[in-house]
Amino acid sequence: MYPNHTPGQPAQRAVEVHHPTPIPPPVVQAAPVVPVQPGTVPAVASIVLPDGRVVTGYAIDPARPEPVAAKPPVSRAAVNVALGGVGFLAVCGGLLLLTSFIAALTAFIGQLIILAAVISGGWIAIQVLSGSDHRGGTTVNIRRATFKRNHFHG
Fold first, then answer.
1. pTM of the full predicted structure?
2. Which of 52, 120, 142, 148 to pair with 126, CA 20 to 30 A apart?
3. What is the Cα 13 distance to its own chain's centre?
């Protein structure tokens, strides 16, 4: 790409010049103008300003939106079915909550009964197994027993 050069002489390069190709402008054809007569001739309005000038022009009607298509009326049967469905779902939800509450209450009462049985069973076990209580046992007088023993064996 670069030719050999000798020292002291500037290097020479091969230069290629590109010229842009002009793009022709688009051809625009004017649409034919067709005069349209208005359906009615609008009324000309004149307004007198406070400083005495008169402004004359056509009155412009405000743009009106297209009327919205009338919604069909909802039938009474459809409303009753929808309300019945909502009521049915509410009753089912209430019954589900009621059964959950009854199940929880039953489990709680069962646990209270088991707790009472454990406490009363423990109290009964303590009463039966404790032998240090003197209310129902026999008292022994050691001096008398010793005397009796010496008397009968002596």
1. 0.34
2. 142
3. 72
How many C-beta neighbours within 10 Å does residue 110 have?
10
Q: DSSP readout, 89-108?
A: HHHHHHHHHHHHHHHHHHHH
d(CA 55, CA 45): 8
- Which conformational region is residue 8 in: left (phi greater than 0), alpha (psi within -120 to 50 degrees), or beta? left
The answer to whether residues 12 and 27 touch, using CB atoms and an 8 Å cutoff, is no
pLDDT in tens, 58-110: 767 777 888 888 888 888 999 999 999 999 999 999 999 999 999 999 999 99
Q: How far is CA 60 from CA 21, 45, 46, 64, 95, in A?
A: 52, 10, 13, 12, 66
In whole angstroms, what is the distance from residue 125 CA to residue 66 CA?
Answer: 93
